[in-house]
């Protein structure tokens, strides 16, 4: 029997609205205004069909949007052009590898050889020899027993936390951990205690007073808002003393910290330890896309068998695996990139402070500059963009302490003239009350 479809709903016609779905009539590339109309909630106040009987179902979202707007928390998608001339201090391409010809060529070659997508879950058809090679090289580079590549750092964190804990476990986290780690903790159904930022004594107290025998400490290695480093050696000692495992999210450490950019966990001597698991992203310093978990072989085996964000997710695209492999090779051959990015971060801090701005005290590539309010942070970032420097803007609820900031990321490929231009743009456009 053939498949038939019936619909009692009247056909919806909106001839004067742009099409938002994919289809042959869409232009191959979206012009800025069209993209804004499709993606920018503030750009489409009109409901598609106010007389539709189900129109009220999601109408409460408009009240929520209004509340966010009142609080200065509307977020906008700003599609960037492929030929933008601006200096990028907003992305996480710390080593300048995302557009390195060797990396992009490797991505293209991998797509041509293996296909545009992985075609399935890693456990079905989504594991290629390229994935296996990347896992081998990542483990070797970071000094871990084994590695497992995920489709993103986010899913790597979900997989690691949920499978290494559970209802019968306690998890102790730093208050400032990344959202992906928080989601992993929620999904784990463990008893979660979030303690004061960078405070091993508070972690020790939570571990000492737990009811559960199994415990896990979860932390970023470098915190993504201010770029400060977690006290990994101290945390590791506390975990040892209390029989807890540790997950270190080295998303902002890999490629930047440690010998030749091997990361903060390697720098702290933790990547080969039997009770430590490191997660990384391939999407920042390595300029590609994807994530990985590094750790003891028994942990990796457990993830393959049980991590739902691995099993029920399409494998990492071959182009991303190829790009990450090429980036890793470059990092191995050009370790000075890791040193350069730290020098650029230090120079930005020194010069912004000299101009009277209040900055974080970063240990890695992320530098934040305090803004007086969410609205002023947005306006400041916009003025920087007008001067040709793209900066990030962090506002509540993305910041744990409620302080809005410009977020700058140092990059190894910035020249001295670029740094001058960045400092000029940021200082010349600063709000009056931004000075410390
Ligand atoms: C600390 C941290 N962990 C994990 C992630 C998620 O990585 P990905 O972007 O590869 O999903 C990010 C990304 O912003 C991050 O900053």
UniProtKB/TrEMBL annotation:
Xref: SUPFAM superfamilies: PLP-dependent transferases
Any GO BP annotation: biotin biosynthetic process
Catalytic activity: 6-carboxyhexanoyl-[ACP] + L-alanine + H(+) = (8S)-8-amino-7-oxononanoate + holo-[ACP] + CO2
Cofactor: pyridoxal 5'-phosphate
Pathway stated in the Swiss-Prot or TrEMBL entry: Cofactor biosynthesis; biotin biosynthesis
EC assignment: 2.3.1.47
Pfam families: Aminotran_1_2
Residue segments, region Disordered: 1-53
Keywords (A to Z) from UniProt: Biotin biosynthesis, Pyridoxal phosphate, Transferase
Annotated Aminotransferase class I/classII large domain residues: 86-426
PROSITE patterns: AA_TRANSFER_CLASS_2
Superkingdom of this protein's organism: Bacteria
PANTHER family: 8-AMINO-7-OXONONANOATE SYNTHASE, CLASS II AMINOTRANSFERASE/8-AMINO-7-OXONONANOATE SYNTHASE
Family in the record: Belongs to the class-II pyridoxal-phosphate-dependent aminotransferase family. BioF subfamily.
Assembly and oligomerization: Homodimer.
Protein name, per record: 8-amino-7-oxononanoate synthase
Taxonomy of the source species: Bacteria, Bacillati, Actinomycetota, Actinomycetes, Pseudonocardiales
């Amino acid at each position: 029997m053939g498949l038939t479809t019936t619909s009692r709903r009247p056909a919806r016609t909106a001839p004067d609205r742009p099409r938002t779905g994919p289809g042959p009539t869409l232009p191959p590339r979206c012009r800025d205004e069209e993209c804004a109309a499709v993606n920018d909630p503030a750009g489409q106040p009109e409901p598609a069909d106010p007389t539709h009987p189900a129109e009220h179902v999601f109408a409460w979202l408009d009240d929520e949007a209004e509340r966010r707007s009142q609080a200065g928390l509307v977020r906008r998608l700003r599609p960037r052009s492929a030929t933008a001339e601006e200096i990028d201090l907003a992305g996480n391409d710390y080593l300048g590898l995302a557009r390195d010809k060797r990396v992009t060529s490797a991505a293209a070659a991998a797509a041509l050889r293996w296909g545009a997508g992985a075609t399935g879950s890693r456990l079905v058809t989504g594991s290629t020899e390229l994935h296996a090679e990347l896992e081998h090289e990542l483990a070797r580079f970071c000094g871990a027993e084994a590695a497992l590549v995920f489709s993103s750092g986010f899913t790597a964190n979900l997989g690691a936390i949920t499978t290494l804990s559970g209802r019968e476990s306690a998890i102790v986290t730093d208050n400032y951990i990344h959202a992906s780690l928080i989601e992993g903790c929620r999904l784990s159904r463990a008893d979660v205690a979030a303690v004061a930022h960078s405070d091993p004594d508070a972690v020790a107290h939570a571990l000492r007073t737990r009811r559960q025998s199994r415990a896990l400490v979860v932390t970023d290695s470098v915190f993504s808002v201010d770029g400060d480093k977690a006290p990994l050696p101290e945390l590791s000692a506390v975990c040892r003393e209390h029989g807890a495992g540790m997950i270190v999210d080295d998303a902002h450490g890999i490629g930047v910290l440690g010998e030749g950019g091997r990361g903060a966990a390697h720098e702290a001597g933790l990547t080969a330890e039997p009770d430590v698991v490191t997660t990384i992203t391939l999407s920042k310093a390595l300029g590609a896309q994807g994530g990985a978990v590094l750790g003891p072989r028994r942990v990796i085996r457990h993830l393959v068998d049980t991590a739902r964000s691995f099993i029920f997710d399409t494998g990492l695209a071959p182009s991303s695996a190829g790009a990450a492999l090429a980036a890793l090779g470059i990092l191995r051959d050009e370790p000075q990139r890791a040193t350069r990015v730290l020098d650029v971060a230090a120079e930005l801090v020194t010069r912004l402070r000299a101009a009277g701005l209040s900055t974080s005290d970063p240990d890695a590539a992320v530098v934040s500059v305090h803004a007086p309010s969410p609205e002023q942070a947005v306006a400041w970032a916009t003025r920087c963009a007008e001067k040709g420097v793209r900066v990030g803007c962090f506002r509540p609820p993305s910041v744990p302490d409620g302080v809005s900031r410009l977020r700058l990321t140092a990059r190894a490929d910035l020249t001295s003239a670029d740094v001058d231009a960045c400092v000029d743009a940021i200082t010349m456009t600063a709000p009056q009350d931004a000075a410390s």
